[in-house]
Fold this sequence. Notes:
By secondary structure, the protein is an alpha/beta fold. The chain has helices at 2-41, 51-54, 64-74, 92-102, 116-120, 125-141, 159-176, 194-197, 210-228, and strands at residues 43-49, 80-86, 107-113, 146-149, 179-181.
Amino acid sequence: MFNTFVRKTYSMAYGLLSFTHKLLAATILAVLTTQAAQAEDTFTIVAFGDSITRGYGLPEDQGLVPQLQAWLHANGGENIVVLNAGLSGDTTAGGLARIDWTLTEEVDAVIVALGGNDMLRGIFPTSSHENLDGIVALLTERDLPVLLVGLPAPSNFGPEFKSEFDAMYPAVAAKYNTLLYPYFFEGFGAAHDTDAIRQYLQDDATHPNAEGVLLIVNDMGPMVLELAR
């Protein structure tokens, strides 16, 4: 009688333990499957630019990439991940030199925002145009969608410089059929009014402050969603 009771008790305990193990295994499998599905569904965008992209002079969570990431997640882009490939002081030549090793396997699309430092250094637009063309050509060869971000030159560089510099962004975008966001500071609401945009810039009158970045993100965000689609 006692032995029978022990056998039944052991059998029930073993059955319960077996059920627990199966339930735990099923739970782990479900979690892993969900994580794998989420990983497959993730759309990774590289923000490839200079100090503005990098978030110069701002707290880490107030830079362009973190604010853009937050905007995307709040506006239907929950599966989009934005990687920060901004390098302070970078030119189009520097971008061309480093674009290849920036493109890791998980990259699905690229935002290209370069040229501002070329302009500040007085590099003639012919060279900048060639470099920008080279960057987008490589991305096109890799079948990566591109959002090209322009930055028109001020008039103090002279009409020839301004004309050629301003024209290179739409020319490259048209050549490779990419998306074009014509003016980085378009979200400020006064595209060419220096006095009007100064309130959205840091003390150096060059880099956007946190409020300025937010305006940029709000205006550019829908086009980044289009890039992901």
